[in-house]
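Q: Second attempt. The first request was missing the SMILES, so the protein and adenosine-5'-diphosphate are both included now.
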Amino acid sequence: MLEVRHASKIYGSGPARVAALNDVSLRVEDGDFVAITGPSGSGKSTLLNVIGGLEKLTGGQVILDGRRIDDLSENALVDIRRKKIAYVFQQYHLIPSLTALENVLLPLTFGASNGHAEQRAMELLRRVGLEKRAGHKPSQLSGGEQQRVAIARSLVNGCTLILADEPTGNVDQKTGIEVLQLFEQVNRDGVSIIMVTHSPEIAHRARRIVSLRDGEVVSAG
Ligand SMILES: Nc1ncnc2c1ncn2[C@@H]1O[C@H](COP(=O)(O)OP(=O)(O)O)[C@@H](O)[C@H]1O
Ligand SMILES: [Mg+2]
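A: Got both inputs this time. The predicted holo structure:
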């Protein structure tokens, strides 16, 4: 279970001061699928980034499985990010020179890359419907396929929580629905998902919706 308690995040000072998050509290139960919506600049990405430890809070706490994680050292955070939390971005962030299979394997290569790892990566590519594309480079894949590779990569370490920032922001509507269906399938398999989207249609596919405005929660389903 993930809990955000009274989170605040202030950027800059004086006239440049921006309260990107202002006293945001949120609970995400294991197996939940939450959409975070709101207009541009409302703090969606900031909220995701403080949950994932990519940015430090100005105030408040983030608690994962009963343990405070917002005040952890960089090393301890890397460990959590590797084992429990995975990120999926709008821009996919695949390595252009690597094949789909190698991209999925990447998070594992700091452990031992071996036949077992490769088997697991292939299994994940199959799960996202891309086993026939395993040897393709990102430039040979459509946007939707690249995002599916990115989702397979996010799952390779057995994470329990996916943080997705506008994962359908770069693909057409039909492909966006496919990406969403994949998230739904991953969620049914027990992975919790927090997905940022400015699209109400996409948001309504989640189990519940949290809306932000000017850094504050204005409604939570
Ligand atoms: N690194 C930063 N420095 C200063 N201001 C920032 C920074 N990142 C975000 N902001 C500001 O914080 C607010 C929330 O940004 P963000 O979380 O990116 O919104 P969203 O993802 O909802 O579009 C915006 O006003 C944005 O300009
Ligand atoms: Mg954003």
